[in-house]
Amino acid sequence: MLAHCQGDAAVEQYLNALEAAYGANPSTGLNRIEHATMARQDQIDRMKRLGYEPSFMTDFIYLYGDAYRDTIFGNPRASFAVPFGAAAKANLNYTVHSDNPAAGMPLNPMRHVEIQLMRRCIVDNSIIGPDQRVDIQHAMRAISMHAARQIGLGESLGTLDVGKDADITILESDPFTTSPDKISSIKASQTWVAGKKMYG
User: d(Cα 63, Cα 152) in Å, to the nearest integer?
Assistant: First the structure.
């Protein structure tokens, strides 16, 4: 199951329904919470306990973080919006997504990595919830191995392992050594699908 849940009340209703239907750590597949924008700490902890995972939309911070802080929720709640850091600290695997084309932003996975690292709002250049930033390892896993697993393809995609499909993107710069605020500018020089070069 997967469902879009923005507010903490919606997350609570969905978690209650999932737990009633599936219990903890179901063998039937991964239950996912899309967006989980205003998930609380206790809900992050509950997802971890039950074996469910969130997929966060980074652009809620990038495009609307100032509105969350100044108009909609106020600073304390806005600082915990889209809680990458809380998920990482709870050892809760998560992914990120763009909701494209709804957000109107160009597709760029490295931009989503940068947002996880910086949590910078493009409107006023402010940092929204600095304690919810994550390190590069968590940010990269959110767009690779965890993403493949969340869509049921973890056995064939997401990591470089023997027996998996050779789907590879070669970047022009190393995101692990690039300044966090420059990661979105990293270009792909090549892409390979099933061991064949498709671009570059």
Answer: 30
Is the domain 2-157 a CATH 3.40.50.11260 member?
no
The Cα 40–Cα 58 span in angstroms is 17
Residue 52 backbone phi and psi in degrees, to 5:
-105, 160
Report CA torsion sign: 10, 14, 20, 21: positive
Q: What is the greatest pairwise CA distance in the chain?
A: 51
- pLDDT one-digit tens code per residue, 5-42: 999 999 999 999 999 999 999 988 899 999 999 999 99
CA distance 192 to 186: 17
Helix (H, G, I), strand (E, B) or coil at 159: coil
Q: How many CA atoms lie within 13 A of 41 on its CB side?
A: 8
Report domain extents, the chain: 2-157
Q: Is the pLDDT of residue 101 over 90?
A: no
Question: What gap in Å lies between CA 59 and CA 138, rounded to an integer?
Answer: 17
**Residue 31 contacts residue 2 (beta carbons within 8 Å):** yes
Calculate the alpha carbon distances from 74 to 81, 100, 128, 189 in Å: 11, 27, 11, 42
Other CB atoms within a 10 A radius of the CB of residue 123 amount to 13
Tell me, what DSSP letter sits at residue 24? S
Q: Which residue has the tokens 């990591």?
A: 159
